[in-house]
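Re-run with default settings, no changes from the original entry. Doing this only to confirm the output is reproducible before filing.
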Amino acid sequence: MDANLSLPLQQLPIEAQTDAVATSARSPGVSPLTSLAGAMPPVACRTTQQAITAAKIEVATLIAHHAALTVERDARKVRLIRRADRLWAVDRQAEIALIADRINGHPHSIVCRLKQTYHGCQHLVTQWNYLREAAESEDFDGALTSADRNAALTLLGIPKFQRHLPNYPIDPDPTDRDKANPGAVERTRAKILALVETQTKRLEAYIEVLVEEDREQREFALKGIFLVPDCQLDKLERQRNRDERMIHKLNDAILGATEDDDNDLTAATRTKTSSSVKPTTDSFSTKTKTTAHPLE
């Protein structure tokens, strides 16, 4: 026997309650009365009416919980609307920072993801501009430092295990690796600056498109339509939907059990009525037969 049957209906797990109570809605031939009564132990519930009452109490509890979740959800929406009005850029930049923190482990996928958003493209432009400053610096001696080179290759989406190769666009040409060659430093500097210019122009073209999308998302958020996912709001919505499903299942089972109980009562009444009428008819027939006998 299931250990859950030793508990009152109110103490059963929610899933066990709804599964037991709503069995009749899914399984032909199983009475809602049996389902409701089976959800409670024999000692706690000996009649179908007690099971129905317990299920109604559970429905009331779920309705109260659903109402509390609705209040919490609405409060969360108000907070998100206020943040969209006052701190939209700050929140989006914080999200981008969390994504960018993983760029060293997965450079290609993270760079592609950053390019999908307005603030992500701005972040990449900022990083390329740091490399521009390094190349334009007076301390530039014909090659980027190890840290700057790794940063550039990360922005290009090159994984770490391939960075030992010496022929990337940020590296000096083979003829310019000897810094003593006249013009070697300037040629390498120009090569790096050309790469930075190409990358930033491409990102700025993305930004021109994505800025409109970002503005639309903010306008929707101000109206309470959140295109940017919010984990807490999504969790509240899932809990509300779960409660709604359970309430519907319990109400369907209660309705089925009540109708079944009424049908049983009607059938019992008809049977009782038929039993009480039949002796009267037999008595009348016997009496008629008895009075007719002397006349023969």
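Residues 231-292 form the longest helix (62 residues). The chain has a mean pLDDT of 78.
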